[in-house]
Design goal:
606 residues; mainly alpha; 18 helices; 83% helix; 0% strand
Length: 606
Amino acid sequence: MNDLPELNEDAQNDALNVASQETILNPNDINESAQSEDGNADKEACALHENHQDQLDHGGEESALSHEDVHAKAAGADSCCETQLATAKNYKQRYEAFLAGLNALENPEEKLLFVVDFMEATLSSPQATPHFKSFWDARAIALVLFKENISPSERTKLWDRYTALSKESRRLKFLFDEQGAFASEQIGIAVSALEKELDNPDEALSKMPEANFLDNCSTLCPKKESYYQTQCRLHLLNAQAGRITALRKELIHTEMRVRQKNKFFQRLSAAGDKVFPQRKELINQLSKQFSDDIQAFIEHYFSKETPHDSPFFLREEIKALQGAAKELTLNTQSFTRTRMALSECWDKLKLFEKERKKIRSEQKELFKTNYDHVLALIHALGKEIEAGEIKESEVLDKFDEIANEIRRLALGRDELKALRDGLSALQKPFQDKLKAEEQDRLFQIREKERLKKFKGVELRNAIESFMLDLDSYDVDSMIAKRDEFLLKIADLPMTKSEKQELERLLKPVKDAIVDKKEQTLMALSDDDRQALQQLQEILKQRLAQRVEIKGQLESIRKARGSSSLSFEQAMTYNTQEAQEKERLDRVSHGIEEIKGKIATLEAIKG
């Protein structure tokens, strides 16, 4: 050990530990180490193969529609196992080749260089993960070879490479351990989430999207809720089965301890026991229900040689049923049997269409004969009209006769359209004449309405102008003008509500008349007693007027409280209520003034 170059503390400890445990390794010891590594690799590959076999046992139930999918998945699992076995075998062969090359060398310096190169090649292997077992075995051999008689400069150079590779191997081992731990943690999270979802199936079902692929299928529409519920559960189970398969594949390709990997496989196997049997049962149940419904559809519409409904409806229904078969998760037997049964129905429809075409060709001849007969009647009537040999009233009767003849005879769609177009062309001058007369009548009605509306607007404008100039009238002329407007309103050809609206515009005239009388009476000063009587008479009128206004306000409030009023009616009632309140305030103010004057006169009298 004295010949070794100066080393750091970690390198010296590594060297002393290895030297104390194993001073020298002969080729037999090296072969045994390689065989031990190969045996561990074989055990790991066998464990993976057993878990793959468990996956294939579930995978046999995983696809109910295609046996080819099952075989493809089984082949994929076998290929993964073969890849693991091939990798282990490759490592074994490379290590055996290394030992053979090492034994072929005699110079210790060449042996050490060969071993260090192999260590470097092992760490920089093109494989996904370095083979650390081969590296550590080669490292132990290199440590022994450092004791041999080697030149100091070469020993120093190789020892630097040796220590650098040792550090790199520990760094890589730490990184791969971290990656494996992270992958194990993520797989554990995924498996836990899957187990939680399996424990709460109702919550998972509530998150599934709603289906609508049976909306256009009349046969299955009455039972669509049952189909949607079953298919929704199958969608969930299919997704869970896919996640189980994906997690198994991920486990196969993830580097971790075999014991931990087996635990994950056992949890996935338990999850598969919950998913695959239930899924198989639902598929069989759904397949039986769909097969029974297809059989009922065939018995209802195709029990005889002639279909019981229109070919167009049956074609669309068969397409809808075939589309539903693709959307539903059915087993292979049910899917194939229903598709073949629907194909037979499609062939029957084709034969029926062929027979219908033959019947249509026979009908076309009858349609042509009837068409020629009615066309001759139309041409004959046209010649009579052109020559003026027929009266207008008789022409209308002839039109009705030809129309009845068209409805009575069997005619095709094209023939019927051509005859109706010809008859319409013949009727057009008479129809234009009737249309012109009708338009003239409507014009006269609209003109009367316009004149009536104009008179109403003209009278409204006159009333509003009169209301704005009330101060210029005395009491008698004001009453005469009001009566004149009331007579004009009564003579107008308007509805009752429209007349009442105009009469409401004249209501303030009554208040103005009372105001005029009040002003006249208040100006009297000759006889206080006579003035007092006059004031009391005015007070009675004012009180009666206030009672009337309050009654009017109550009526307006009741009418406005109705829920069937339009926006315009509601606005009208609001305006009326505001006007009546203004009148009430004015009358109340006048009453207070009259009462004050009466009190003053009574005080003077006393």
